[in-house]
Amino acid sequence: MSQKKVKVRAAKHKRVVDTLTGPFERRFLPWMASRLPQWVLPDHLTALGMFAAVLIAVSYALSNYHPAFLWAAFFGCILNWFGDSLDGNLARFRHIERPRYGFFVDHSTDALAETLVFIGMGMSPFMRFDIAAVALAGYLLLSLYAALATVSMGEFKISYAYLGPTEMRMVAMLGTAWVYFNGMPIIQLPFVGLTVLDIIGILVSLLFLGAFLISSAKMAGRLAHIDRTAHHEHKPHE
């Protein structure tokens, strides 16, 4: 594939969003976008989502000093959802899309935001840093898969097993609230004791890794079939 074709494929892609909250968001987000003041631009919302990620990370780290900082992390998840979910919807509603710029900035800031969030969680007293690091690695693997699938097939997938960014935020918020009200009891397993957030982190890591492996295997099969078909179609007849 030529470099020119890769650029076009990356700019014009099909979004695959099949999540539990998808039907609600497809109705609610455009409604919210239509009611935002004219001075609010998509870049403002992207910046808000990034600010919220910093707030989440710092708040988790500060929970070492007082658990009340967990509520700042909880609120940060809501702000992050608002900014991250609405920037693209606002651009589409106002017909001011910038496909290449928007795709690059949105998803590069997403990767940075999630890196900060997982590091912040790992610095809190409620999740082991190694578990947070493994969960982050799983997220980045899925981000890599999404980028490769976009370039290879023009298909940008952000949902796996009916779960997407919104569902992950909800899990984080529920886990954070549970920890605030119940403290940090250690669940003793064979050879190791884990907190509730540790267990959630392990489950999320397994989900990310499983989604990456299964999706990559399926995509490789699709691409192999496409390449074989194209080879046979262009093979000269004897």
From TrEMBL:
The membrane spanning regions, by residue number, are 45-62, 68-83, 129-148, 187-214
Ordered alphabetically, the record's keywords are: Membrane, Transmembrane, Transmembrane helix
- Record-given protein name: sn-1,2-diacylglycerol ethanolamine-and cholinephosphotranferases
Q: Which GO terms describe its cellular component?
A: membrane
Extent of the signal sequence: none
User: Which GO BP terms sit in this record?
Assistant: phospholipid biosynthetic process
Task: Write out the GO MF terms.
Answer: phosphotransferase activity, for other substituted phosphate groups
Gene3D superfamilies assigned: 1.20.120.1760
Q: Which InterPro entries match?
A: CDP-OH_P_trans, CDP-OH_PTrfase_TM_dom
- In terms of superkingdom, the source organism counts as Bacteria
